[in-house]
Amino acid sequence: MTGVITTCHQQLTQPGYRLFDGPFHDVADVGKNQIGVVGMPSDWTHSSRLGTRFGPEALRRATTLLQSMRPQGASFDPDTGRYTFPTTNWLIDCGDAEISAQDVDATTQAIAAMTEGLTIAGGIPLALGGDHFNSFPACLGYSRGLEKRAKDARFGYIQIDGHLDFSDRLGAWGSHNHATNARRISELPNIDVSNMVWVGIAGWVDGGDLALIEKQGGRIFSASDVHKMGAPEVMRQALEHAMQGCDELYLSIDIDAMDAGYLPGTGSIVHSGITPRQYYDLLDGLAKAPLGGLDIVEVSPPLDPSERTEFLAAEMLFRVLRRFRTRPVTVA
User: Fold this and answer.
1) Segment 76-115, tens digit of pLDDT
2) Each residue of 158-199: pLDDT tens digit?
3) CA 157, 179, 305 angle in degrees (round to 5)?
4) ∠ CA(74), CA(75), CA(80), 5° rounding?
5) Which of 96, 163, 89, 156 is nearest to 126 (CA)?
6) Are 294 and 54 a contacting pair, CB within 8 Å?
7) Do 37 and 19 touch, CB atoms closer than 8 A?
């Protein structure tokens, strides 16, 4: 394995990794039920610890390395007790959206155009951030595409996060930043707050935002709820709530729901958050969910030279996408 893991400086200055080390493709190359990857290397809508613009490249590198270490044939999964075999052609990397420095609207529309195209084609957009604001343009495109593909369809929303991100505005950053993404998503035409669920909340919570979510029927599970109830039960209830009257699920994975003692390379540090095992169990609970789109955000490689943050995040992706990348096999 010599030379595979680079230093942090090399990692940030040697672009070119594709998810699972394949070539970049056009959005039009993604078909029904395939995962289409969209990079969102933008972090100027974050208000404090920067560096998440390097997240998509780090996630591509980490997933490629982890994939190369997986068995090429049938393997036994100790978590599920099942033998599986890797599938092919389930994921297509479409490269990065065009990021326009200091033009939030242009960047928003560029990301949304890619996820919209993937959704219209019946693909499942996987957006790699970037700070958490980028979840809004990714979901915006998914929302537009869903409306065009199935006019009356509605989607539920689960956000695993240490924060609500439901502010209407944040200081000089205005209405479009990493603390407002969930509020902007709630305003889309084919979702309702009553189908929105937050899991893992442990950071500061604005009382007004909390009251508004609860008044409109949203559901919130704190990190303490995960500790006390157990991750599988929390996700069971979360999914049940999000999917009432809905056809598909949009999932937003903010890695900062995990306690910073495990995962320091993120934009907003959270203490007393959930553990890696609990995070994986939450994602395992979505194994059969009707996933329509998802994003993973707040991976900041410069803040963690040990590189463990990006590899923990890569494993999160493997967990939630398990059913796409493997199929059960019968072993005599």
Assistant:
1) 888 778 888 888 889 999 999 999 978 999 999 999 999 9
2) 999 998 988 887 765 667 766 799 999 999 999 999 999 999
3) 100
4) 125
5) 96
6) no
7) yes
